[in-house]
Amino acid sequence: EDDSLQVHVLKPGWKEFVQRRALGRFQCSQCFREWSSAKVHILFHMCRRQGQGMVWMRVFRQECRRCSDPRLEEPEFSQETMERLLHNLVLKILKYFYHLPTQPSDLLEVVVDHTTLGVGPHDSARCEGCQLGVC
């Protein structure tokens, strides 16, 4: 993980994949309020040199809306969401570095459990991805 990764800022030879709209669950480290978001974005930077590969990732965080001085909180993902994220990452690696043809329809939707979502709108003011222009 690297919280300094930025969208469209790549070292030479590196490729980028932004997984948009993953379902994450958050808990405030101050007031312990919990919330879910279907707009968690994960940024991957990857490269392959001399048969070795490397993937760096950044998960965009969110702040609690209840606290007056909130911290950016890391999301947690279900096992099914993680499997879908990794499936999509592997497809991008196969496309970028092994030139295997892939279709957009091959990517899996990563908003898996709609029952845990609140009905409220996305809180852009408290979303790190929105603040950085990713969302």
Per-chain topology:
Blueprint: E1 15-27, E2 34-49, E3 52-59, E4 62-63, E5 72-73, H1 79-98, H2 128-131
Shape label? globular
Radius of gyration: 16 Å
Tell me, rounded to a whole number, the average pLDDT. Answer: 90
Based on helices, strands and strand pairing, what is the structural class? alpha+beta
- Proportion of strand residues: 25-35%
The proportion of residues forming helix, as a percent range, comes to: 10-25%
Strand order of the largest sheet: 1-2-3
Count of alpha and pi helical runs: 2
Describe the structure.
With 135 residues, the protein is α+β, with helices and mostly antiparallel strands. It has one domain (14-132). It is built from 2 helices and 5 strands, in the order E-E-E-E-E-H-H. A 3-stranded antiparallel beta sheet has the order 1-2-3, covered by helices on one side. The mean pLDDT is 90.
Short description:
The protein has 135 residues and is an alpha+beta fold.
Features:
5 strands; 2 helices; alpha+beta; 135 residues; single chain; zinc-finger
